[in-house]
What we know:
Radius of gyration: 32 Å
Number of helices: 29
Amino acid sequence: MAQTSTPAHAGRPGQDEDREQRLAALRIRLHETAGQIGSAEDWTRYLRAAARLGETWANVLLISSRIPDATLVRGYEAWRAAGRQVNRDEKGIEIFSGMRRKEPDRHGAEEAGQVHSWRDARRVAYVWDLSQTTGQPVPLPPAFPAQAGEAPPGLWDCLCWLARREGFAVEREDGSPGDGTTFWAARRIRIPPGLSSGQAIWALAHQLGHVLVHNTIAHPPGTTTSGCHGIHKAEADSVAFITCARYGIRVEHAFASPRTWAGTDPRAQPAAAILTAGERITMAAARISRLLNHYLADNRPAARPTAEPSTTARHHERPPQPAAAQVTAPLPAPEPDPRITGVLDDAMRFYDGQLAGSWVPAYLAERGIGNATLRHWHIGYAPGGWTALTDHLRALGHDDAAIQAAGLARLSSRGKLIDHFRDRVMLPVHDERGNIAGFLGRARPGADPEVPKYLNSPETSSYHKGSLLFGLHQARDLLAGGATPVIVEGPFDAIAVTLADPRHHVGLAPCGTALTSKQAAILAQSADLGSTGILVAFDDDPAGRKAAVRAYDVLRTVSGRLQSAVLSGKDPAEILQTEGPAALRTILRDQVQPLSAVVIDAHLAPWERRLLDPEGPLLAMRSTAAVIARLLPAESAVAIRQITGNRELATIDEQMRPVANPELPRIAHVLPADAAYQTMRVAERLGFTDYSDVLVEVANAVIRDAVRPVSPAARLAKSGFPHPPATIHHGYQHGISRPSSYGSRQTQAHGSPGSRW
């Protein structure tokens, strides 16, 4: 906002009348200027001026109509303080000043600088452009547009974080137009993955324009911003244009003439429509810029001479750091014994050599795994004889101690060394250095029921099941290229995932054990989990869902973007075999839901039989709200306690009348996007027509947790959920039925219609 000079006559008698006359004259001039904006070129010119000046829309029009190329304006005394002098005979530019300010919002001081409206201006002030002054050079302010191509690092991440602060998760998925789509009910912003970095930033800024300008009414279910047009498109495009211009993003965009949405009939007051739209646009762009200037301060280009740096408001909240950065990296494994490594390498070559004449190639071909995949994964065959491998390794010069230490043979009841793997498909497992650590063996189909279907190498100096992920060695290059890791149950599931969608998804499987924190930490070292996220694709059965719940607690320490594939009764290997790679690829890309939804569903499942009881849904809701509260990150819990003053909220009073809770909008905004989504989802699942009922219980659970002793397990559950913003997808929801007529009855008894957030 420009530092201005008040007219010298402001203190003389009759100043009120004179001030009102000047304000009235300036308003007339403003309407005349707005009425002259008739072409797309005019609109673009004023948007460029808005990006440069950082002023309100009304003042941008007043300044640019006088000096089209104005870059920085200040009052007379402000220029003197900066070491510059207004040139003789230069007339000042009249602008609106003394506008009332909004009260700080939930973020505190950062919003206090937002002016209200030119309609509320108290006086007319004078400013001069830099071109009207001479004197000492001064640096550019942070808000001054960067030169094209100078976009600061981290701009995309900060825009994603801004979306999260508004309660929206950002996902890079196909299925949306080039400028993205906002799903209002699901609170998701989808940006196509194939865009360049500049195009992606434009699309996200466009959708943030919708969120900041148009998220003021209740949108019907299924409503999106896809195909936006008219004034809504013009406003969102204009917010994106100003944002990109300020941060050096070169984007070519052709605006429609304002007359297409403001109209031309004087009775429709097109000038007023242009002023109102411009005011909304500059307010939204200013809100984005204030936050970006603060968080990108260390990444913006060095200051260039021309203006005084602006003061950045103090913020009370910091953008979240990727969760992976909070994880202690596992200690490097000791160097493997070269004797053991040599034995394992020779064993792999032996198994490879036995493959051709075995039943394995035909069996795997039926499962959709061809010869090229066999060679790439070094899939082999362990013959059915008792000592085939042991005899071969002995012939190569390996002693019995080394063979046994490598986990390839064991002593029989008679004291004879026999092969550990017999008549099995063999898959080598590699450690983080790429060395073979051991093997997984799959039994022949139709084998005796007493024969284990899968057999691991025993624990050895090189093979530690809890530290190894099958498929990680083959996936390292794909993970480095941005592919999403998919945690599955078995090795052939991992192969199926990688075969179906190698550039976008890679399969990884624990080796005969539940997923461990060490495996998660090793994965975090191999991929940028903050950007790729993690997808879990366990079997759709009770055991698989239980494994997914356990995996959630492990994986959320390394990534906030956790999703679960909806497999509908088949594992990935079965889908590849029966439906082909395209079907599996579609599931991995489109049929997913937040992994937290699986956690919530698992908690709700035991309540199914009680939902027909009068108090069943209420008790289920309160119990599930406590689960959501325990999943919140520490900073969200702290913010909720500060907002509520550590007191529990009520939804009804003693007379059973609804109680309004003005804290709820602020609480809703400090929830991570995934937690907000689960709150709404629980309300819909249990028949609560007002989401605020669940939100109140989440907040109350946070308060109760703060005053009771916290166990180490609970303390772990409160850490880092989710960092960065969780990606939310639509998909099939495992779940429980609910009484179709329950919602209205529950709301009347326990709801709070007046407190909707």
